[in-house]
Write a structure and sequence with these properties.
Radius of gyration of chain A: 21 Å
Low-confidence stretches of chain A: 286-290
CATH topology of the largest domain in chain A: Rossmann fold
Largest sheet of chain A: 6 strands, parallel
Helix content of chain A: 40-55%
Oligomer: homodimer
CATH architecture of the largest domain in chain A: 3-Layer(aba) Sandwich
Number of helices of chain A: 11
Strand order of the largest sheet of chain A: 3-2-1-4-5-6
Largest interface: A-B, 89 and 90 residues
CATH superfamily of the largest domain in chain A: NAD(P)-binding Rossmann-like Domain
């Protein structure tokens, strides 16, 4: 089911992602409203023309108005919000999210849906090192991946609608994973990388470091500017998967340490060749999935 | 002492860096010759106009011709080359290098210099994930750091000349470190980052990973495409410093693991705030040192 522009869209939470959704969807001609905590976020999005109207409190009528609601909230706030407001969704409506962890969220969110309302989860893998609607831009979706994480409760129609949303937003690739597989992969490609960046940044306190760094250090620590509220919550929710990825990574790093300490250049080179080979796969141009 | 364009420059080794030096210096009007192993590298650089002449074997007359020789060679080849050819340098000549490790190289290189010839070491912190003169470009020096690593055997004149070379090449910042301090810092900002990228790439074998990654994973593994001959040699030469950086980093990562496993969100956030604060220093614009 294609997401046609006559669908009415409600965005809950005008942060970096919610604002970027609002920008992308209003540009495509959708009717977009927003509910968010701060009046200045509403004002900003109104002024930019990203939303038609905005409120700072949940409004049952607005929630019932929407064909598709996007919950762009921190995980624990998302569940609290649904507990209080899910009853206002209209039958036939769809609800999606942007949360970076899935197993702990999707089942509970689906249980909270009233009859005839479908929650279909998705993870837009896009972001910046800054937050807030003032930093929103639909540009962050270009070249990025969008992962739909359906459960057995989802319908083909809901899944298709959610995929279509990813395409409308401008993502380069839309794919599907189970919530469990998503969380294992995200622990690796996103959460572990943030743990590494933080550890790399805090393991040395030389104050003049920036005079001596090359691109590699700057690349590896770009994400070391981290929103601690959001990431510590995401880490905690997914901590089992993340710990097992930390252990796998630490094991490989220890392997390098052993080869170095033993002077085993052959094994070290072998590992580097494998790394080069696997990384080369990433440099192939992305295919548009549309 | 400013490096004036009447100085005659010999580049030994036309790889990625040697070629980029040749390009930058010939553009500035220097007379540049090259000695390198492969005739096709000579032909490429000649055709581009980066060198006036090139040879595939060391030529005593050419070595004596140079006011400044740049050794753009792997560490062990650099020392072998000097053992065989340092005697041909003319009194008053200067010799520099591009090697990524210093302590093990500089002392030995300085011992190999004939009377009146000064070896002044430098590390241009620039590179690409590809090698060979065909991929050379002086663009890699823009915004990058250049570190001169003098010893007590160096003269103010030699140090100034080498700094001037870094500026002529177009580096954003030229600084000085002792070889020992350089090696400790490089173990951290460059060698450790390469170990991390390789470990991150090899610790998970999911073949469809590229469908699910965000920018962070791609940033952290860009350098996982690695020249295994060069890096395993650099790692081995600097292995004590590198192992101690691996241990410091692994300790921090383990700290995150402990906070996660204990559910200690406060400590985790504290570490993230420190990381954010320290990383922010890097996003200030670089000052030109010229």
């Amino acid at each position: 089911m294609e997401l046609s522009t006559n669908k009415k869209i409600l965005i809950v939470g005008l942060g970096l992602l919610g604002g970027s959704y609002a920008q992308a969807l209003s540009r495509q001609g959708f009717s977009v409203r927003a509910i968010t905590r701060r009046q200045d976020s509403v004002d900003f999005a109104l002024e930019k023309g990203w939303i038609e109207a905005g409120k700072t409190e949940p409004d049952p009528e607005w929630i019932g108005w929407a064909d598709l609601t996007v919950l762009a909230l921190y995980p624990h706030i998302l569940l609290e919000w649904l507990q209080a407001n899910a009853k206002y969704f209209s039958p036939g409506a769809f609800v999606t999210d942007v949360t970076g962890v899935k197993s702990a969220i999707v089942d509970r969110a689906q249980e909270l849906m009233p009859e005839g309302v479908e929650f279909i989860a998705a993870h837009p893998m896009a972001g910046r090192e800054v937050c807030g609607v003032e930093n929103s831009t639909a540009e962050i979706f270009r070249g990025a991946n969008y992962i739909v994480t359906p459960t057995e409760k989802n319908t083909p129609k809901g899944i298709a609608l959610c995929r279509s949303l990813g395409e409308r937003l401008g993502f380069a690739r839309v794919s599907e994973l189970s919530p469990e597989k998503h969380d294992r992969i995200i622990a690796y490609v996103s959460q572990l990388t943030h743990c590494i960046a933080v550890s790399l940044m805090t393991c040395n306190m030389d104050p003049r470091l920036q005079d001596y760094t090359g691109d590699s250090f700057r690349d590896l620590t770009r994400i070391a500017r981290i929103n601690e509220e959001m990431w510590s919550e995401l880490f905690q929710i997914n901590k089992e998967a993340l710990i097992s990825q930390i252990d796998a990574f630490a094991g490989e790093l220890h392997r390098i340490r052993t080869y170095l300490s033993d002077g085993n250049e052959e094994k070290l080179k072998e590992m580097m060749r494998l790394s080069t080979e696997r990384r080369a796969l990433f440099d192939k141009p992305l295919q548009k999935s549309e």
